[in-house]
Amino acid sequence: MHIVQILPELNQGGVERGVVDFSRELVRRGHGSTVISAGGEFAARIEEEGGRHIALDVCSKNPLSFPLRVLKLQAALAELKPDLLHARSRVPAWLAWFANKKLRIPFVTTVHGFNSVSRYSEIMLKGERVIYGSTAIKDYILKNYSIDESLLRYVPRGIDMDYFDPACADQAFINGFKKQHGLGGRRLVTIVGRITEWKGHGSFIRALAEVQRRHPDIVGVAAGGAWHGKDDYFDSLKKRAQELGADIRFVGSQPQVREIYALSDFIVSAASSKPETFGRTAAEALAMNTPVIASAHGGSLDILLDGENGFFFPPDDHQAMAEKLLEALGFGFSNMREHIETNFSLGHMTDTELAVYRELTDS
């Protein structure tokens, strides 16, 4: 099979990383893989790993350039002659839907997020099969849109278990990182993700300060850069940490996130008002045998086994988060990597997604 995936761009993000991983796995299994996007830091990896990347503007929301971009995409698809077209975001889905009217390539969409409910967002339900990656996303779809439920398919996102393997962590990086940030001999509680309000950094800092009053050996780590235009919010977080006496290291964006999981004693997924659609951070951390403390909503509800490989707390409740962190300090967690290997591995995802594709290509 030759699969074309289309998404806005290929910069940092869970969807983008998932597309790169899936492309590599398709190639490994002998399928053709093409990714169409406006480019980005991951674009070169697609080609390095045996796929093809085509740079087209499938990102801009400018309606004036829309017709020309449809024609360019249509020409690219006509030349590629793929067996299946898979759209993973709204602008690319609109472009693909119009470009594909004459070509009639089997068309699949994945609803990756809790988008605003609108006619614009409804394009993500125009696939001949509509994939969702968590129970929370399915509930969102059925609550807000009229769709034939028989077209929905559950395909949880997949973690590359060969990469996210504790045995493969770069110990030299870990030792250097700990030395650089003064973390030696401390227990590390880490939050991973871009710094924006809905990721819950504010609640994390408040919970951390409470835990540290009883356990001063605990130190917090915030791995992630400030979202574009969020510098004022970032500054307010640093000020709040200082006011509360929270010992936290803001270490910026870390490409070696595997090592960040490996050096951490606990990972906190603190999404507040906006739930995580899948919970990739939680799944990757568990694959590295690092327990997770997570907000009890969104995709994490499918991934985490409460009281076994992690704990839940009510969203945006820093007091409950602190209590769960305190409980975690003396808890014997289990079934971390094993649970992800069985249910959320890249191999499992690829098997399931290819089965969905074959429903259309084999008919």
From TrEMBL:
<keyword id="KW-0946">Virion</keyword>
<dbReference type="InterPro" id="IPR001296">
    <property type="entry name" value="Glyco_trans_1"/>
</dbReference>
<dbReference type="InterPro" id="IPR028098">
    <property type="entry name" value="Glyco_trans_4-like_N"/>
</dbReference>
<dbReference type="Pfam" id="PF13439">
    <property type="entry name" value="Glyco_transf_4"/>
</dbReference>
<feature type="domain" description="Glycosyltransferase subfamily 4-like N-terminal">
    <location>
        <begin position="13"/>
        <end position="162"/>
    </location>
</feature>
<keyword id="KW-0167">Capsid protein</keyword>
<feature type="domain" description="Glycosyl transferase family 1">
    <location>
        <begin position="178"/>
        <end position="330"/>
    </location>
</feature>
<dbReference type="GO" id="GO:0016757">
    <property type="term" value="F:glycosyltransferase activity"/>
</dbReference>
<dbReference type="Pfam" id="PF00534">
    <property type="entry name" value="Glycos_transf_1"/>
</dbReference>
<protein>
    <submittedName>
        <fullName>Spore coat protein SA</fullName>
    </submittedName>
</protein>
